[in-house]
């Protein structure tokens, strides 16, 4: 079945450091790919998405590129802020599965001032 | 605010009991999804309804059931509760069922079984 694997955390960075959170997936067909963010005590919010190969999703300084050849969707940000501290989830949605999301295990990011 | 409302926010109950979690989707959204977030299993899809009909089923236990009502709100019923059912239960909604459609999540119901 479909699956998403993302790097385990926690990832601890200093403010203004470069962030990469790796995400790879296994799916039949051509899924859509998403990054969701969960701030403490809150639900999940969509951060960005990409719906086809080579698409780049971007939002709030975060970027991720849909790489079909490597089945990856790595999340990057050039300069993190303390307010970016949260748990980040990579997810996919497959055509033959309605719009249900298959999530990775989540990566906790901690940014220190 | 995602527009998805879940009640209650917190629930503490004893083993063997039954509880009902409620979800009101965003205005106009026809699809409702239920997810369970636990420390050991991560985020798992439970079940999806679209316009009152069950559309997809994931890792949902037989002790759990759900339904979507004509006004599109949904309820997740959990019965014969066990300690391992303690988790955060999220509801999400989307306008349709296409794979490109964004799902909007509520803030979750934290269930503690004691």
Task: Give a brief rundown of this model.
The complex is a heterodimer of chains A (113) and B (114). By secondary structure, chain A is mainly beta.
Quick tags:
heterodimer, A: mainly beta, six-stranded mixed beta sheet, B: 114 residues, mainly beta, seven-stranded mixed beta sheet
List strands and helices in order, with pairings.
The complex is a heterodimer of chains A (113) and B (114).
Chain A: E1 3-6, E2 11-14, E3 19-21, E4 23-26, E5 32-38, E6 44-50, E7 56-59, E8 62-65, E9 75-77, E10 86-93, E11 96-99, E12 101-103, E13 107-112
Parallel strand pairs in A: 2-13
Antiparallel strand pairs in A: 1-4, 3-9, 5-6, 5-10, 7-8, 8-9, 10-12, 10-13
Chain B: E1 5-7, E2 10-13, E3 19-24, E4 31-38, E5 42-50, E6 53-57, E7 64-68, E8 74-78, E9 87-94, E10 104-105, E11 109-113
Parallel strand pairs in B: 2-11
Antiparallel strand pairs in B: 1-3, 3-8, 4-5, 4-9, 5-6, 7-8, 9-10, 9-11
Describe the 3D structure.
With 113 residues, chain A is mainly β. Helix content of chain A is 0%, strand content 54%. Chain A has no helices and 13 strands. Chain A has strands spanning 3-6, 11-14, 19-21, 23-26, 32-38, 44-50, 56-59, 62-65, 75-77, 86-93, 96-99, 101-103, 107-112. In chain A, the strands form 3 sheets. In chain A, strands 2, 5, 6, 10, 12 and 13 form a 6-stranded mixed β-sheet that branches. Chain A starts with a strand and ends with a strand. The model of chain A has no long low-confidence stretch (mean pLDDT 93). Chain B contains no helices and 11 strands. Chain B starts with a strand and ends with a strand. With 114 residues, chain B is mainly beta. Chain B has strands spanning 5-7, 10-13, 19-24, 31-38, 42-50, 53-57, 64-68, 74-78, 87-94, 104-105, 109-113. In chain B, the strands form 2 sheets. In chain B, strands 2, 4, 5, 6, 9, 10 and 11 form a 7-stranded mixed β-sheet that branches. The model of chain B has no long low-confidence stretch (mean pLDDT 93). The chains are: A mainly beta (113), B mainly beta (114).
């Amino acid at each position: 079945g479909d699956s998403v694997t993302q790097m385990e955390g926690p990832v601890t960075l200093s403010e203004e450091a470069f962030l990469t959170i790796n995400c790879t997936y296994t799916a039949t067909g051509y899924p859509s790919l998403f990054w969701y963010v969960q701030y403490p005590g809150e639900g999940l919010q969509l951060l960005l998405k990409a719906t086809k190969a080579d698409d780049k999703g971007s939002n709030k300084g975060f970027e991720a590129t849909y790489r079909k050849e490597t089945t990856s969707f790595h999340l990057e940000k050039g300069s993190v802020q303390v307010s970016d501290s949260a748990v980040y989830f990579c997810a996919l949605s497959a055509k033959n599965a309605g719009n249900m999301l298959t999530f990775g295990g989540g990566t906790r990011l901690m940014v220190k001032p | 605010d995602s527009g998805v409302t879940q009640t209650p926010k917190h629930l503490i109950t004893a083993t063997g009991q039954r509880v009902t979690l409620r979800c009101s989707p965003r205005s106009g959204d026809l699809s409702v999804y239920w997810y369970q977030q636990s420390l050991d299993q991560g985020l798992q899809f439970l079940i999806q309804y679209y316009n009152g009909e069950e559309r997809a089923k994931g890792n949902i236990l037989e002790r759990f059931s759900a339904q979507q009502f004509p006004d599109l709100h949904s309820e997740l019923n959990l019965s014969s509760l066990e300690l391992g059912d303690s988790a955060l239960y999220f509801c999400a909604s989307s306008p349709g069922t296409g794979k490109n459609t964004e799902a909007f999540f509520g803030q979750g119901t934290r269930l503690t079984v004691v």
